Amino acid sequence: MSARVLVAGDANLDLVLRGDVRPRFGQAEQFLTGADLVLGSSAGICASGLARLDADVALVARVGDDVFGDRTRALLDAAGVDTGLLRTVPGATGLSVILSEGGDRSILTLPGAMATLSASDVRAAVGQGRATHLHVAAYFLVPGFAEWLPEVLAEAKASGLTTSLDPNWDPRQSWTGVAECLPYVDVLLPNAAEAVALAGDAAASDAVAAARLLAARGPLVVVKDGAAGGFAVVGDDVVRAPGLVVDVVDTTGAGDSFDAGFLVAWLEGREQADCLAWAAVAGSLSTTGTGGTGRQADRAALLAALGRS
């Protein structure tokens, strides 16, 4: 790839718990079948997925000066992500506890240092002049940066970069601020529930209708649709790609691997149907291991799953 991708957003570890994970209070003790401390965060997992698919990728984010921050940086380095723009600040690194039940999960997140990402961090990275694409993840977890995101995206576009945004879930469920970004976003990558929430229209009660409303505001809208794969609204058409039939171990980060698959294909100039196929396969394969990066596909594995060499 000739693209240089900047991924901006969150960076943290995930503590993934499996087994009898639904808490019962009253000092009840329950047995787990597994626990793993792995690379987490939407931005971190997407950056890892991009690197595994041979993208030149750097992560712009913040971690704390603690053991979790050191481990986050080490795992990103091992994945092939450029961590030169990953800033260490005083305090605790963010952490997510994932209660995983195979096909579904609940997430408990401590924002920590990742919430302190600033617009100046990203502006400085863009200003280096090496990047060709800016992908922003976890909009609602980086409020200090999100406040300035429309301006940052506009500046990136003016500098010749293409842009993408995965807003992720809003823990406060206010869903405000993203609309102002959309005129400066080339690719919007919500999941189906997020698309409906972001559309903010009672008439858009299904993901396709919501995606059409969002697309009318500027971006190509690519929706992650769980086991069904994903779809994109392209003009009047809806282009779909199915997911693979796999033995699901953990769905954590599947959407971020989906993003990586789509963006690599899109940045290589592939047709929309091909971009969606790459995305759906990348997302599906990632669910066959623990955490978001345990079974992320490299390019050879993805092409093999697509039936290509």
Q: Count helical runs.
A: 10
Task: Estimate the helix proportion, in percent.
Answer: 25-40%
Physical arrangement of strands within the biggest beta sheet: 5-4-1-8-9-10-11-12-13
Strand content: 15-25%
The appropriate CATH architecture is: 3-Layer(aba) Sandwich
The CATH C-level name is Alpha Beta
CATH topology-level fold name: UDP-N-acetylmuramoyl-L-alanine:D-glutamate ligase
> What name goes with the CATH superfamily?
Ribokinase
- What is the general shape? globular
Radius of gyration: 18 Å
The end-to-end distance, rounded to whole angstroms, is 17 Å
Instruction: Spell out the helices and strands N to C.
Output: EEEHEHEEEHEHHEEHHEEEHHH
Main sheet overview: 9 strands, mixed
In total, the number of domains comes to 1
Total strand segments: 13
Q: Return the average pLDDT rounded to an integer.
A: 94
Based on secondary structure, the structural category is: alpha/beta
Question: Which features does this protein show?
Answer:
single chain; 309 residues; alpha/beta; UDP-N-acetylmuramoyl-L-alanine:D-glutamate ligase; 9-stranded mixed beta sheet; 10 helices; 13 strands; 23% strand; globular
